[in-house]
Amino acid sequence: MSSASREFSLGPIPPGGIASVGDVVVRTVRDAILRGRLKAGDRLQQDKLAQQLHVSRQPVREALRRLQSEGLVVQLPQRWMAVREFSAHEILENSRIRLILEPEAARIAAERIVPEEIEALKSINRTMAQMISAGHLSKVAALNAEFHHRIYEAARMPTLTRLIEQLWVGRAILTPPFIPGGRGRRTVDEHAALVRALERRNPPGAAKAMRDHIARAANEYARQQAAIDTRHPTPAAKRAARVRGTGRAPTRAARRER
User: What does pTM read for this prediction?
Assistant: First the structure.
């Protein structure tokens, strides 16, 4: 994880209609991460964020703790908070495990889901399409997670649900590259295909729809991330490239960052 400081500005929070300053700070910083305005590895300084958002340090501190629990932010050894970086290995491993567990949950859900749950999934997917059109990425990520969670809940297997949800911690940070390339709209279409299989009580069809959905999203993310890394390599990648250029073995810190 890089501790390099990069300049960014989030702008003040609008004063009207704030029910909880802490909630608004969380949404603002989360949305900045999802939109890519805050990059992986960016250091998050409480004083700087409080000044930019026109709030005190307390709601910023609470917001960073909440984002840390979501897996979007990590604490560095120097006590700095930073936007989490995901290695290619972590992303690949996550996708492979999801491809094992989530199709099974969808298959079981197709046998146990009730009509009210089907209608809830349709409603969530419609709202997700609207939020994609409006560019509300933080809401898109939340709705996407809720859609999947409702399916796992419909399987009525709490242990399986807990295992899957562990894989979702921090996954929202993988959303930004999807939206500009039309991934959001394709996600809505794939969700609709999954709902149709569930509504028809077609376990093999539901499992396949979930498997295809996860695989397509993972493949698109890998391609887009490779393009992003080529244009804008992370600090860790830059250090690794320098090490390769000198022919020296990477340091222990550099190996940890891979």
Answer: 0.68
Q: Which domain holds residue 69?
A: 21-83
Q: What is the CATH number of the domain that holds 227?
A: 1.20.120.530
Is residue 175 classed as helix, strand or coil in its secondary structure?
Answer: coil
Cα–Cα distance, 15 to 58 (Å, whole number): 17
CA distance 101 to 104: 5
Tokens representing residue 152 in the block = 């796992």
pLDDT in tens, 24-46: 999 899 878 876 788 888 999 99
Amino acid, res. 7: E
Q: How many domains does the chain have?
A: 2
d(CA 224, CA 230) in angstroms, rounded, equals: 10
Measured over the CA atoms of residue 167, residue 170, residue 174 and residue 176, the dihedral's sign is positive
- Rounded to an integer, the average pLDDT of 37-64 is 91
In which element (H, E) is residue 146 found?
helix 137-154
How high does pLDDT run on average in the chain?
82
| 172 Cβ contact list (under 8 Å, min separation 6) | 30, 33, 34, 70, 72, 141, 142, 145
The one-letter amino acid code at 52 reads: Q
Token pair recorded at residue 46: 């409480």
pLDDT in tens, 217-244: 888 877 766 766 666 555 555 555 554 4
- Helix pair 158-168, 137-154: axis angle to 10 deg: 160
Q: What distance lies between CA 71 and its chain's CA centroid?
A: 9
Tell the burial category of 198 from Cβ atoms under 10 Å away from its Cβ (0-12, 13-18, 19+): buried
